[in-house]
Amino acid sequence: MTHGKNIAVNLKTCPYCQDCGGCDYIDTPYLSTLETKKKWVSELLGLDPKKVETVPSPSPVHYRTRCQVQILNGNPGFFKRKSHDLVEIKECLMLDERLNEKIREMKFDQNFKAKIELYLKDGVVCERIVEKKYDNQFTQVNEAVNALLVEKAVELLEPKADDRVLELYCGFGNFSFAIMEKTPGLKLTGIDIRTKQSSIKGLEFIEADVEKGLRQLEEQKKLSHYNKVFVDPPRIGIKPSVLNKILSIAPERIVYVSCNPEALKKDAEAIITAGFELKNITLFDMFPFSKYVESLNLFINKKGGRE
Predict the structure, then answer these.
(1) Which residues are catalytic?
(2) Which of 16, 88, 117, 294 is 20 to 30 A from 165 via CA?
(3) pTM of the full structure
């Protein structure tokens, strides 16, 4: 796929980029950054780059619909990379213009210090104070790329009406609801500490951390019922104890969404050793001009799954 504007971030378009450090590929044409990411992931996983597809962001700039703004001495901005030195900003080239407008409107007392999360909800800018390090209301920051990712993920899962799908780290149902909409009638159990119960027939959420949720299914003698697994773990990847439980049920296929290629490499090696083949890997440029990339990976059980 080749959509996406071939632009570059530089001092003419962003006056903060040399101080901020938020964009890793300064002065690099956008489509070239995709090739850099493809090369990195291909070499890391030992793959032929020709077998790795890339999906650019339809909008390489002004794509972020969520951000965390640091307030120091009453001034809004972002910290420099690996420091607590504030770069005061009036706007960021990567933020949706509605978030930029909100930042420009921010007024605080001179001694005020905080971290404030800005996010769009139903087209309206909302804000909240972030009270601890990992306190966030996680949603993908690039809505356009997320829509492409969800569509492709459901396609690779190949949901059928008689499937029983186990989804781990399901968050607020970013993929869950799309899977159910594609194939009404299948059974899907999603596990995550942030989920709430759904009234959709066949869709069940277990509001617990993944390890606890899996133990619950084991105790109920339900874990072996699932024939397909969908995972979207945090940056550390899948805990070995969780991955072992996934592999123990010998699913037909595992669809793995990864935000960290290095963690993916570790998990992929274990999955392949257990008898699976990596059939598809697609990179989605969720974070243009940064070093980060989201990947969608399909593992097929070479033995065809459980009997």
Answers:
(1) 259
(2) 294
(3) 0.91
